[in-house]
Structures are given as C-alpha cells and as structure tokens.
Amino acid sequence: MPRFHWTTFDLNDVLPPGWQRDIDAVAADADVRDFPRTPVLSREATTVRHIRRGRVHADQVRDHLSWLYYSYRGVFLELAGEACAERVVTAGDDRYGVVLNVQVGTDMRFECHVDSNPLTGLLFCTDHPEGGELVVAHDANAADIAEVERDCSVIRPHAGHLIFFDGREHPHYARRLATSGTRIVAVMNFYTASCPEATRPRELNKHLYGDR
Fold it and tell me: How far is CA 68 from the centre of its chain?
C-alpha cells in the first residue's frame, strides 16, 4: 500500500481579516462532552468507550462563520481539486460538510479512526509548539493509538494551513495538547465519483444525528 501523503496550502494571505478571532468566539460555545466511540470507523482500543472533546456543529458554522461555510463550497473546493486526481464535490448534507473540532486543556484528544470519505480537508486554526499533532498510521491494520504511534506520519498544526488527505486506509487521531490552551481545526468532507456521498455508512448518521 502506498505510504500516507498529504497536500498543504498556506492560506494566511487569503483568509479574511480577523478570521481567528471569529473562530475563537464560536469555539467558545463548542459542544464539549464525552463522545461515544464512532461505529464502523473507530480504531480505538476496545477498552475505550468515550473520548472527551468539543465540536462546533455544522449549523453553527453556517450561522456564525459564513465565510468558512462558503469557502468550503468555493475556494477550498477548488484547492481540493488540485489535491485529488478525480473531480471533487462537497457534501450535499449540510450536517457534516464542515464542522469545528475543539480540544481544551491537556485532557482532550480526538478519536482514533479512519474516514469514510475519500478526501478530508483540515484547516488548522491554532498553533501549538508541542502537542495537538495529527498522527497518521502507515499500517492500515493499526487498531489503537499505540499501534498508530509505532509507524506514523506526524503533522503539526500551523494556523492558516489547509491540508488534504485520504484517511480511509490510514487510522489517525489528534494528540492531547502538552500545555493549557485550545486547539481548533475545521474539518471538511469531500467526495468523488468513485467514492460518492451515498457510500457514507448509515450507522454513522444514526450515531451522530439519530437517523433511521
């Protein structure tokens, strides 16, 4: 299997003035709680049932960060096309098009998982000299954090950097912060003809939104 790779764009010169201030204000009202492990996609150890983290849901992004909502469907989509050999489209369902993941303090991290969509975009909104790294396994069979860390790529957050990658065969998670602070990243789902939105597992929407 090809080793993991990603594409990075530095957008600090094109993001709107005050964009980090806007992000911080919305992230202050994030839904912070113990989220149960994600069905189908989780690669957590069997003993881990919940992971504490924060999320700003898609409707909050649409209502309070309109520039991010429309960038996902505009300029970010164009950049996604440069990072993928296929034509790329955004999610038709607004509920999971673009959200914010939030970690506060040193006790939170993001769940170890694989993606169901063929291309993920991450806009890092904060800088961290240590901790908060995105850690991606080279081994598709890595079944927990220890196995991910054994052979991995480590991507440090840099505010204003947008990265694209295919995480379907590469379990990945976000490390805890090393010091107090807040880690914020905008997470975007993109799809292609060979892996359209219709392939998204039904169990995932049932888990997140109560769909039947």
Answer: 14
Residues 6+ apart with CB under 8 A from 137: 4, 147, 148, 150, 151, 152, 170, 171, 172
For 172-185, letters b (16+ CB in 10 Å) and e give bbbbbbeeebbbbb
- Residue by residue, DSSP assigns 2-49 as PPP--EEEE-TTTSPTTHHHHHHHHHTT-EEEEEEPPTTTB-S-TT--
Residue tagged 């292609």 (tokens): 192
Q: What is the pLDDT of residues 95-115, one digit of tens each?
A: 999 999 999 999 999 999 999
Q: Measured in Å, how far apart are the chain's first and last C-alpha atoms?
A: 36
Report the amino acid identity of residue 190.
F
DSSP-assigned letter for residue 74: T
The set of residues, in sequence order, having a beta carbon less than 8 Å from that of 83 and lying 6+ positions away, is: 7, 119, 164
Residues of the chain short of pLDDT 70, as ranges, are 1-2, 212
Residue showing tokens 């006790």: 107
Q: How far apart are CA 114 and CA 173, in angstroms?
A: 9
pTM for the whole thing? 0.96
